[in-house]
Amino acid sequence: MTVVALSGGVGGAKLALGLSRVLPEGELLVVCNTGDDFEHLGLCISPDIDTVMYTLAGVANPELGWGRADETWSFMETLGAIGGETWFRLGDRDLAVHVERTRRLRGGMTLSAITADLCARLSIAARVLPMSDDPVRTRVRTDQGWIDFQEYFVRRRCEPVVHELAFHGASTARAQPDFMAALRDPDTKAVVICPSNPFISIEPILAIPGVRTALADCSAPVIAVSPIIGGRAIKGPTAKMMAELGMTPSAGGVARRYDALIDGYVCDFADMDQVAGVSAKVTLAQTLMSTLADREALARVVLSAARMLRR
Ligand code: FO1
User: Fold this and answer.
1) How far is CA 72 from the centre of its chain?
2) How far apart (Å, rounded) are the C-alpha atoms in residues 266 and 258?
3) Alpha helix (H) residue ranges in the chain
4) CA gap 306, 81 in Å, rounded
5) Contact 31/129 with Cβ under 8 angstroms?
6) Reported pTM
7) 285 C-alpha to center of ligand 1: Å?
8) Separation between Cα atoms, residue 123 and residue 273, nearest integer Å
9) Which of 110, 153, 195, 279 is at a distance of 20 to 30 A from 81, taking alpha carbons?
10) CA of 150 to the centre of ligand 1 (A)
C-alpha cells in the first residue's frame, strides 16, 4: 500500500516528513520536482531532491529550510575571496553531495539510482525519486526577459514580474518508471500533492508526458494541500506569482488551478470562505507546519481525507 507524494522543496518536504512518520515503514514514495535543477560551478545541483532527502533524514538546516544543519561555509568564503561566484550558497557539507552526485552522473549513473543510494546512506525509509531521469529545466519569462529558474529565484530574489513559465525538456522527458508504476498500481492508496508552489514545483511534474493521464486514471484519490494560508504563501513566491499571472492569490485559486486533477483539497481553517465553488471535496485543517507534531497531524488529516475519497 503506497502513498505517492508529489513535492517541491521546503513546504513539500515538511509534509513528506509528516507522512513518513505516520505511515508504516516503506509505504511512502516521494516524487520530487527536478525543474529547479541546474549546473553551477561545474556541479549538478538538485535542490528539491536534497531538501526532501535532508528533511526526511533529520539533517535539514532549520533556519534556511534548504541545505544542511550544522553547516560551515569555508568553501563559499574562500571562493568569494578569490573572486568566484557566491550568489548561490553551497555549504561545505552540502557540497560533498553535489560533488559526489556530479561524479556519479558523469560516470553514467541515473539520478534515480544516485538518489536511492544517498537515501540509503542517510537511513531514509521512504523512497525518494526524481520526477524523471531526463533533464527538465524551468525557465521564467519576466519583465526582464526569459531567465533560468535559479537566476530568477535566488540571484534576483523572485523580484522580476513573472509572465510565463516553461519547462525545457519536459515534452521529451520520460517520467520515472517507478513513479508511473505506482500510479498504475491498484494498491496505491493516495496521491498527495504537497503544499508546494503549483507553478514551479508541481506543474513541472505534471508537464511530463503521461503524468496527467496517469493521475486521472489512478485508482487512488488525488489530494492537494494548499500552500497558501490567508492569501499569503507560507514561504516563497507562490502568492506573488499568482497575482502576476492574473490569478487570485488564495487557497481557492490554487484549488481551481488543479481543478479536475484533484478529488480532495486540504486548506487552512482561515481559508474557509475562499473555497466556495471548489469542485474537489474540501477538508479544513491547520496547515501551518511549525513543529514536527504539526507535520504529523496534517499528514493524518490528508490520509483520513484520502480514506473517505477512495475511488
Ligand atoms: N536558496 C536561496 O535562497 N539561496 C541560496 O543560496 C540557495 C542555495 C541552495 C543550495 C543548495 C540547495 O539544494 C538549495 C539552495 N537554495 C538556495 C534553495 C533553492 O534554490 C530553492 O529553495 C528551490 O530551488 C526552490 O524549491
Assistant:
1) 25
2) 12
3) 10-22, 47-57, 74-81, 92-106, 111-121, 149-150, 177-184, 203-206, 211-217, 238-244, 251-258, 292-309
4) 53
5) yes
6) 0.97
7) 29
8) 42
9) 153
10) 8
- The residue assigned the cell 569555508 is 74
pLDDT of amino acid 311: 60
The residues of the chain scoring below 70 in pLDDT are 311
Of the candidates 227, 236, 294, the residue with the CA atom closest to the CA atom of residue 17: 294
The dotted CATH code for 2-310 is: 3.40.50.10680
State in Å: Cα 281 to ligand 1 middle. 34
pLDDT in tens, 5-48: 999 999 999 999 999 999 999 999 999 999 999 999 999 999 99
Which ligand 1 atom lies nearest to the CA of residue 197? Answer: 26
**Residue in 47, 60, 6 with CA at minimum distance from that of residue 225:** 6
- Whole-number Cα distances in Å, 221 to 38, 208, 305, 309: 33, 20, 9, 6
Q: Which of ligand 1's atoms lies nearest the C-alpha of 10?
A: 26
**Which residues' Cβ are closer than 6 Å to ligand 1?**
8-9, 36, 45, 47-48, 50, 66-67, 88-90, 94, 150, 153-154
Q: Which residue has a Cα nearest atom 2 of ligand 1?
A: 154
Q: Residue 93, Cβ neighbours under 10 Å: how many?
A: 17
Q: What is the DSSP string of 143-192?
A: TTEEEEHHIIIIITTT-SPEEEEEEETGGGPPBPHHHHHHHH-TT--EEE
Residue appearing with cell numbers 520530487: 32
Structural contact between residues 297 and 286, judged by C-beta atoms closer than 8 angstroms = yes
Which one-letter amino acid corresponds to residue 234?
I
Q: In this predicted structure, what is the pLDDT of residue 128?
A: 98
Query: Cα(175)–Cα(207) distance, rounded to whole angstroms?
Result: 10
